[in-house]
Amino acid sequence: MTATAIAPSHKAPATDADRTLLEIRGLEKRFSLSGDFLEQLKFKGGRLVREQKFVHAINGIDLDIRRGEALCVVGESGCGKSTVARIVMGLIHPSGGEIHYDGTRIDDLSTKSLMPYRRRMQMIFQNPYASLNPRMTIQQTLEEPIRLHHPDWNRQQVADKVAEVMHSVGVAPDWGKRYGHEFSGGQRQRIAIARALAVDPEFIVADEPISALDVSIQAQVLNLLMDAQQQRNLTYLFITHDLAVVEHFGTRVAVMYLGRVCEVAPTATLFATPRHPYTRALLSAIPRLEDDRPQHIRLKGEVPTPVNLPSGCVFHARCPHANARCREEVPTLIAHDGGGRVACHAIEEGRLV
Amino acid sequence: MSLLEVNYLDVRFALRRGEVQALRDVCFSLDRGERLGIVGESGAGKSVAAFSLLNLISKPGYIAGGSIRFDGQELTGLSDRALRRIRGHRISMIFQDPMMTLNPVLTIGEQMIECLKAHRRIARREARAIALRKLEQVQIPSPEARLDQYPHELSGGMRQRVIIAIALLLDPDIIVADEPTTALDVTIQAEIMALLLELCEKHNVGLILITHDLGVVSQVTQRMLVMYAGRVIEQGPTREIINDPQHPYTQGLMNALPQMATPGERLNQIPGSMPSLDNLPSGCAFHPRCAFTRHPDGSERPSCRCQVPEFVASGNCQVACHMVAEMIERERIPAEETTR
């Protein structure tokens, strides 16, 4: 079901749609909290010991992104979704695991050999106020990536490319001479999208691209992203916490909690029948326009700290269906007949349907 | 008479490049125990409206005109000393960012006791007992221990609970909450909103909820105002506005929500963006973005461009729109003719 739903209706041959563009295998990322070597030395019980503390941001993630789809990663703050985006883009290095892009492992490549991949994948950041260089004009901002990736192009070719990309995202040509601060948030995000599209990428990682924008502007930017996907046959990895956007935009959804994926499913399936207890709670928490009083599933407590990860299933302390096995054994993603995969012992054992 | 009545409120900011009018002709009222939502995008003036209730607008902003009557007392022009008897006592505020609101160098208990002692002659021990009781009300786990903790030791959701507890300390008549859950995650947001709602209902406290989230407004409030470029453009019972918005801007805002479109289809966007306050379009501030500036026969409606629309009653709602006014007028005339 998924393959046909994902395939863009025009152009791309059928075989293309089945192909996985990006594979994430056993990805792990720890951030050290303890500073450098000298700061890690502690004096305990008359002896010098070395102590290190880590934030376990990502704890073993397997994800596939197929050509032409928009995979949305959702979760609450601190669940590691932005870290996934940054590792995929090669902005930070993983502590473990592998990333394969179009069949090639890219997480261990040198900066130089990564260059061709950097052209094929681009990123759009959350805050358009911070992601545009304040000392560059819009023209310069848009030219920079083109010059970097096509050093052999002459001036005219670069200018033509900038003009084309400006036109395609609805940036007026006279904006070129102006600076980032002269524009509103929505306009800046448009420019950031133009910059990402300037080198004709095939894969775009968008980290909360509309969260900083107002409702009416969000719609404009989302439409732009969807138009770009259709025209250029793009693949998206879309990071967001806004479930309404996911329902509208995503082909498939991955729900993350404390650095693990707890459920992956085609969007329609996930929203119609969420399976993982956390997904159910998350979906029930969206404020809806229709009903007067929400019947939301209340979770016990709050998200535990990723410094001391809970044993077993990371969600067990807040889960109403947890038992002894959940406290000890880490659940793995298991495919179900709805087309998705869930990591939950209760579902596997049939305790929860 | 309502508990709070705001009439023709006019707030300006005297900037070097000239005066900017942040609020124009804002009128609304709040009954005891009523919950009112103020909705709008950034720059619409919703936060200025909330802040001006307690004259919390800092220079160069000032209240240039209009009146704010609370429980029979006029608040505009009141001295700071007199205002302090109302601020935090009878009207309290909850701000957006829970980390910015709490003092990082004082324990939670210290801050709560300080607030109580500022308003009442009260013994320390007694104040602490009240603080503890309020923390219990907001369902914080192990409240006794929290009193001696510092704000950084608590999570975002917990901090916002503490702030709600502080807002409730002196049993206020009204709580003004400015985007209280925007900085929080969805699941925490749902819990905090449910808590706020429950406490307001239980203690018969009025709530003015400022937010950009139509979903939150629809679930919490009974009446709502929609603001655009410093003006109220539509107000009425929340359910009626949500189910059947009249003003083209409110309609646009609702239709732009992803849940209003078929998944995968284009969203219904409003073209353009909100004008800046120092360069407002003439007439109706929304007219350059509005799809209804023409009559049904295609001819232009000049009033949209030249004249600021007045409020007209449409059902239980008030709408400031020339197109709506015209429609109501057209419906009324044939109705009158038939009755004659």
Automatic annotation (TrEMBL), chain A:
Q: Which keywords are on file for this protein?
A: ATP-binding, Nucleotide-binding, Transport
Its GO biological process annotations read: peptide transport; transmembrane transport
Pfam families per UniProt: ABC_tran, oligo_HPY
One GO MF term: ATP binding
Q: Which residues form the ABC transporter domain?
A: 43-283
Q: Name the Gene3D superfamilies on file.
A: P-loop containing nucleotide triphosphate hydrolases
**Which protein family is it in?**
Belongs to the ABC transporter superfamily.
Query: Under which name does UniProt file this protein?
Result: ATP-binding cassette domain-containing protein
Biological source species: Billgrantia pellis
TrEMBL record, chain B:
Q: Which GO terms describe its molecular function?
A: ATP binding; ATP hydrolysis activity
Membrane topology category: Peripheral membrane protein
Q: Name the major location.
A: membrane
Gene3D superfamilies in alphabetical order: P-loop containing nucleotide triphosphate hydrolases
GO biological processes: peptide transport; transmembrane transport
The record's annotation in InterPro entries points to:
AAA+_ATPase (IPR003593), ABC_Ni/Peptide_Import (IPR050388), ABC_transporter-like_ATP-bd (IPR003439), ABC_transporter-like_CS (IPR017871), Oligopep_ABC_C (IPR013563), P-loop_NTPase (IPR027417)
Q: Where is the signal peptide?
A: none
Say yes or no: keyword Nucleotide-binding present.
yes
Q: What is this protein called?
A: ABC-type dipeptide transporter
What EC class is this? translocase
Q: Which GO terms describe its cellular component?
A: plasma membrane
- Similarity comment: family membership: Belongs to the ABC transporter superfamily.
Ranges of residues in domain ABC transporter? 6-254
**UniProt keyword list:** ATP-binding, Cell membrane, Membrane, Nucleotide-binding, Transport
Report the EC number(s), separated by commas if there are several. Answer: 7.4.2.9
